[in-house]
UniProtKB/TrEMBL annotation:
Its EC number is 3.4.-.-. This is CPBP family glutamic-type intramembrane protease. GO terms for molecular function: peptidase activity. Keywords: Hydrolase, Membrane, Protease, Transmembrane, Transmembrane helix. It comes from Sphingomonas telluris. InterPro entries: Rce1/LyrA-like_dom. The chain crosses the membrane at residues 30-55, 67-85, 92-112, 118-137, 144-168.
Amino acid sequence: MTGELAADYPGDLKFLNFLPKPIREARRPLLAILVGWLTAIIPSLALAWLIGMVAPDVPQPQFDVKGLLAVFLLAVFSPVVESLIMGGFLLILLRFFSPPVAILASSIGWGIAHSSLAPTWGMVIWWPFLIFSTLFVTWRERSLLAAFAMPMAVHAMQNLPSALVVAYGKPF
């Protein structure tokens, strides 16, 4: 499997080739985390803004926690638990499907799961989970620990700004 994810995919599976190579190569962990976070957060913020413009009255996810507990739950606990669940499912999916298909199935599944809490949330969440799933599959080449740690780190960075807003109110 070494180098498999960084390869250019043939045919219908080329949809992952547009992702930056640092998240498709198990080489430089800090660069992969930074690029993974930027690749996850910028499009998801753009999707959230677009959905907010098109459907401003659609309910948003509500969190009934504040302060440090909110930061812990959203930026630490959630990324750890969701990455463990995501990784477990990806390990199963990879037994039956190619990496790109497993990654896409994972991201769509997470979008659907988050839509159950707020209808449009899944439309935003699927993108970061595409990145998290890609990181998991990529870093699985190195080790199972790296496969779980890389998406956890990016997921925590992804959730931190929202966690701070939930914890302490709007920054502006």
